[in-house]
């Protein structure tokens, strides 16, 4: 158990693999009650089984973060199941890398819907309740590509992640007296994200990710932000492989 994490109810989107799954395991180990949500319910249930096997508390919820009403319904279900919600971790994301000259507007739409709108829908679903209870913590997964444009190939992805970082900082300005806001900005991390690129760039992305750090490294950074006292708000954490220059 870890003071500052123990008994907090935490919702993690994209909780079936990678950063989301490792964060769920770590926070549950430290005493949090974890709700994990993603589209693949079977993968979520595997993570829940891992957590319950070590005596932790976790439940899974099928969720497509691009469906605004579904996000609201899952948040309501979590509050009904656990009695409250203390932390939202907006983790779901896509990263198809492709030159803009290919004009793949379908991928652009997907990134905007998942990376940006999905984050906003999560915020919209929890913020009124957090403000009413006078406490809460919103943690948004941005990227080092939200600090420096990842081009060529990652221009639109960077655009969505710059937006996530900007929204995090603006939200902190607006509600920071009651709700803590953290932007987590990872570099190359071992996860399924690297597999969301197809076509000619796929091999380049996989090669880039050979330097990736374990998802558990980011989970520890998230836990650090969560465990701080109520009067401490960790606004941003940049974490990447020591070998990564970008």
TrEMBL record:
UniProt record similarity statement: Belongs to the short-chain dehydrogenases/reductases (SDR) family.
Lineage: Bacteria, Pseudomonadati, Pseudomonadota, Alphaproteobacteria, Hyphomicrobiales
Keywords, comma-separated and alphabetical: Oxidoreductase, Plasmid
Entry protein name: SDR family oxidoreductase
InterPro entries: KR_dom, NAD(P)-bd_dom_sf, Sc_DH/Rdtase_CS, SDR_fam
Organism: Jiella pelagia
Domain Ketoreductase as annotated: residue spans: 8-192
Entries under Pfam families matching the protein: adh_short
